Amino acid sequence: MNNQYMLKTEYFDIVYKIIKSRRKTLSIIIDETGEVLVKAPKWLPDFEIKKFVFDKRIWIVSKMMKFKEKPLIKRKYESGEEFLFLGKNYKLITIEGNYDIGIQDGFLYISLKKEFFDNTELKKTMILKWYKNEAKKIINRRLEYYSKLMKLKYGKVYIRDQKTRWGSCSGKNNLSFNFRIIMAPMRKLDYIIVHELAHIVYKHHQKEFWDYVSIYCNDYQESKKWFRENGNKLTL
C-alpha cells in the first residue's frame, strides 16, 4: 500500500509518509534527514490525517528550512576527519596494526593492516560498531544511576539506530535510545535518559511531565535547544 503523499505549498512540495498503528493521537515527526513522518491511529481516515498535515504546513515548512540550512555531515572516514564523542571532537587517525579502535591522546584511532587503509566500508563498520558498544555501556550505566535516583523500574532497554527520535518509552515501559546520543555531551545524554524515564510516570508532554523532568534535570530546556541546534552533527 502506498503511504506516501504530497502537499504543495508556496515554498516547496512537502512529501510525507503516513504510518498507522495502535496509537491514540496524531503526530508529525521530521527526522534527521528531513523526512516527514505522520503517525496516526489505525482507525483515523486518511482525509482527516491530510487535513491535519495541511493545518500544520507552516510549522513543517519552517522545520524543513532549518534542515536545509543545516545539512547533515557527509562522512568520508578519512584521517583528519573529526568525530564527536561525549561532546568532544576527535580527529580520525588510521594506524598499522591489529584490528582495534578507540580514543587515545585526542584521536579516534583505527588500527588495521596497511592494505585496508583505503577500505572505507571497513572503517565505517568498525566505527559504527565501536560507537554502538560504547553507547550500550554508557547508556545502561546512566540508566541505572537515574532509575535509582528517581526510584523507577523500567522494562527492556534497546539501543538502536533510530531515525526519528533520540529516545522513546513504550506503554510497557520498555526504553529505546538512539545510539548517536553518545556523541552529545554527558549532560545532554543524561537529559535524554531522564526524559524517557519520566515517561514511565507521565505518558505525555504536559506541564506535570516537564515539572517532573526539571527535578532531575533543571537545565532541560538548554539540552532540548542543544539537540535542536546540533542534532545534524550527530552523524556517522
What's this entry about, in short?
With 236 residues, this protein is of the alpha/beta class.
Cα(first) to Cα(last) distance is 32 Å
Care to count the β-strands?
Answer: 11
Instruction: Quickly name the level 1 CATH class of the largest domain.
Output: Alpha Beta
Helix content: 25-40%
Strand content: 15-25%
Structural class by sheet pairing and helices: alpha/beta
- Cα gyration radius (Å): 20 Å
Strand order of the largest sheet: 1-2-4-3
Low-pLDDT regions: none
Q: What is the average of the pLDDT values? A: 89
Assigned CATH architecture of the largest domain: 2-Layer Sandwich
Give a verbal description of the structure.
It comes from Marinitoga hydrogenitolerans (strain DSM 16785 / JCM 12826 / AT1271). It holds the Pfam family YgjP-like. The protein contains 6 helices and 11 strands. The protein starts with a strand and ends in a 6-residue tail after the last helix. The strands form 3 sheets. A 4-stranded mixed β-sheet has the order 1-2-4-3. The mean pLDDT is 89. It has helices at residues 46-55, 57-69, 120-150, 186-198, 207-216, 220-230; strands at residues 4-7, 14-21, 27-30, 36-41, 82-85, 88-96, 100-104, 107-112, 157-160, 167-169, 175-178. The chain is of the alpha/beta class and 236 residues long. 19% of the residues are buried. It has 2 domains: 4-69, no CATH class; 82-233, 2-Layer Sandwich (Zincin-like), CATH 3.30.2010.
